Amino acid sequence: MEWFEDETLWADFSDVLFSAERAEEAEARVASSPLLRVPAGAAVLDLGCGPGTYAVPLARRGAAVTGVDLSAALLDRAAVAASAAGVEIRLVRADMREFVEPDRFDLVISMYTSFGLFADHDQNMRVLRNVRASLAPGGRLMIDLYGKEILARDGGQPKIIDVEGGTLIVRGTVLDEWTRFRDDFVLVQGDRARRGHVVHNLYSAVELKAMLGEAGFADIECFGGFDAEPFDNHARRLIVRGVRTLGDA
Ligand SMILES: C[S@@+](CC[C@H](N)C(=O)[O-])C[C@H]1O[C@@H](n2cnc3c(N)ncnc32)[C@H](O)[C@@H]1O
Q: Does the structure show a pLDDT above 70 at 222?
């Protein structure tokens, strides 16, 4: 079983991975980021939407949001969050390697390192091609990742984090000569310790831009944060965008 198919991971760690602070951060970004500005009624696909971290605030701003995720547990959380916020979101349980709805979306977002999960490069390319097919002509893809340059600069040191009722220990390991990254978690609450891990590909800006180019996207650009900062030595995220140009098949 691949790590992302393991529902116990989300059951054990979703409260700490998808904390109230992250939900507030997403709400603030959706309110202020020029990269997340969408006209009311725009059709938005959140690929790997998790518990609705971005889907809910985007719906609150009037977007018609579809959230796709493989985890039933996280989709349940997204449904609860949408209902608490008084918005409707279309939630679809699907594998992003299979999900295609031709010409449907004005914007596709992939947030918080939800892209590059598959060890096989062709499967990640397949996700990009599915996205391009699902975009309406002129529509845009935006991917937000923990990029390779940022990891190299910030060091990926082990972290000990206070969480509700306990402590979370996170240790990152670079794998396969900087092509993959594994985060191991240990959550200690009272006498109970639970382990989990995630693994994803590590992309530099140049590598990710080349993949979007290969998948047929145009006007590919790169940012270092949600205020559309340049991707330079101060970058905090690797954000890459590309457009499905008008008229391409
Ligand atoms: C790091 S989480 C990010 C969630 C959300 N985007 C956020 O910002 O909070 C990655 C998400 O990708 C989902 N995911 C993993 N593999 C998937 C797949 N093959 N198809 C669809 N979703 C998948 C996970 O279930 C999880 O919700």
A: yes
